[in-house]
Request: fold
Amino acid sequence: MIKEMICISCPMGCHLTVDATDINDIKVTGNTCPRGPIYARNEIIAPKRMVTGSVRVTGGKIPMASVKTREAIPKQLIFDCLEQLKTVTLKAPVHIGDVVIVDVAGCGVDVIATKEIAEA
Amino acid sequence: MIAKNLVIVGGGPAGLAAAKSAYDCGERDILILERESELGGILNQCIHNGFGLHTFKEELTGPEYAARYIDEVKKRNIEYKLSSTVIDISSDKVVTYVNSTDGLVQVKAKAVVLACGCRERPRGAINIAGMRGAGVFSAGTAQKLVNIEGYLPGKEVVILGSGDIGLIMARRMTFEGAKVKAVVELMPYSSGLNRNIVQCLNDFDIPLMFSHTVIDIKGKDRVEGVVIAEVDDKLRPMPETAQFIKCDTLLLSVGLLPENELAKNASVALSPVTGGAEVDDTMMTNVEGIFQCGNVLHVHDLVDFVSQESENAGACAVKYINEGAEKCEQVTIKCTKGVRYCVPHKLNCDDNFQSLNFKMRVGNVYKKVELTVTADGVKVYGKKRPVVTPGEMENITLNSQQIEQLKKAKEIVISLEGGQQ
Reply:
């Protein structure tokens, strides 16, 4: 199985050609850095995505705090993660790196704040 | 009137990087003027990740990237004023700003760095016919509503334009529970990054319709739907292809324009191609002591390159403050054969840079081409590219030897050689 894909590891967006005939020996060409083959293998075996969003904040200068998963989570859990985000309300002050949800959607990855929000 | 050595207009990524670099070059008398209530500029609403791979070797979200630079500026105790709008800059570098505590203030600056970014093209700029119901937003406005204010501007969405903000907003609206019915793109290609088409559209099965545009907006009080049609090779809509899409919201992601009203007041000459100033290799405009960097100069696709360009502008502004302008010959850089523009536009023959970075965009999608720089017809530099697109800025760096060759030339030409459209 030969697949064409675009690497999303960085904004370069390299066009990868992925030979996944042997799932234990996936061959990747077209990448310009080592992240390409890693991305391609993950994409074939178990695709992952970073999830970013925002949660409500009370008592802050801004009503919303931006958040992200600390690392990429399995693609099929994106919407479970987002549902969980809706249930969270933070209290100002919020600091970058504050843990917002521990082990989101049971995937072992935390959601952390990406924004400094001072008290109003 | 108060006096400052360096006034930086705009506290976004460009202004922050210029300030940091100016300070590190020894300048202490710096003032950043920012019209919003916090530093960081547009990065504050760009909560997605993908920023900083070049600068910090890690992938940050917009607010995190901004925070890095805000920290640097605060560490250096660089003065900044928030909620302060610059209303005028004169060609002798008097900067007038207003805010609710200081009132109207005039600052006489030795050098000014314009780092005031760009703005989105609105509905009026592309003349979409139809009714005037609520529900038509620029993609950036919707982004601010969702990410900062916490409002979802609509539930069934069509997005016109496949620039990066449009693509990012397709995913963002989907994340927040809206249904994005289609992204409609006038051109046969996207002006956004490929990775965004993959992770924002393909991941969620959102259709991307090339060579289509919105020809009518229906709905008196609120948008009830849009009519889209395919366009021919001259970009004219073909009425027989018209189809109605029911939606309550239309987002426009139809291009960004440098915000240059202030520059015009100061008699800064603008490029008709970029909408930004024409600068030399020190990022100085035709007005002595007025510099430009970031999206006000030309629209970038990566903030990392904005920071890099702005650090150069900050450093050059300090050099100007200390040593004055160079009076020397300048060679204009010509762009032909598929290359739309190049920044800088001019080269000072007296400058001694160890390396020099040129940023440029092409006018169409080309495959297997070589980006070449020639000095009086002699090739100085060539870079082979498998594919170039208008959506992705090309970036080349020349070494001191190559720059020397250019400075001796009467004519510098940047062009695309070989390849096919």
Q: What stands out?
A: The mean pLDDT of chain B is 92. The first helix of chain B runs from residue 13 to 24. The domain at 1-120+256-325 of chain B is CATH 3.50.50.60 (FAD/NAD(P)-binding domain). Chain B touches chain A at residues 37-38, 44, 47-50, 53, 59-64, 67, 146-150, 175-176, 193-195, 197-199, 203, 301-302, 386-387, 392 (CB under 8 Å).
